[in-house]
Amino acid sequence: MAVAEITPGLWRWTARHPAWTPADGDEWGAEVGCVYAEIDGGIALVDPLVPDDHERFWRALDRDVERLGAPIVLTTSNDHTRSAAEIAARYGSGGAASAGVTAFPTAYHGEIVYWLEPYAALVPGDVLLGADDGGARVCPDSWLEGVPREVVLASLQPLLELPVERILVSHGEPVLADGRAALARALRDER
Length: 191
Hints:
Blueprint: E1 3-7, E2 10-16, E3 31-39, E4 42-46, H1 54-68, E5 72-74, H2 84-91, E6 101-105, E7 112-116, E8 121-123, E9 128-130, E10 136-138, H3 141-144, H4 149-156, E11 166-167, H5 179-187
Parallel strand pairs: 4-5, 8-11
Antiparallel strand pairs: 1-2, 2-3, 3-4, 6-7, 7-8, 9-10
């Protein structure tokens, strides 16, 4: 598990995905990213996965819940429900999504990309991944399962209208600066 404060109120942590096997190594790594954001006086968790060091995780989240109330849990796709039920069971259902969170549906199997406006951050699930050059890339064709790549790319175009500084991917390293340029390169589909 790695935990990083991106900026005050915005954190990203990684945890080992329970379904990962060494055969997945070329497609996606064992560690997947999750996001904690304090927005509009509340907590939003995106694709949360309780890490192996769960006691430390629960202590930290308990402190924040005591201060800000039950979190809302947002998932980018049905494949990313991860620990959502466990968190909801512990804290209740939480509040409604705040005005600082916008959902952008994509053509990639109904995936949602979340825009965390106060942090100028995009949080995708699988449609955008970290790239080896420190930027972002669109997921490989093998993940598209029949959805035309050009349709997926077109569905991501509205994200270019946002002043993106960060892209907090689930798979790979996040983009922490100049996110809009990284997004534009990814959507040009430079593979």
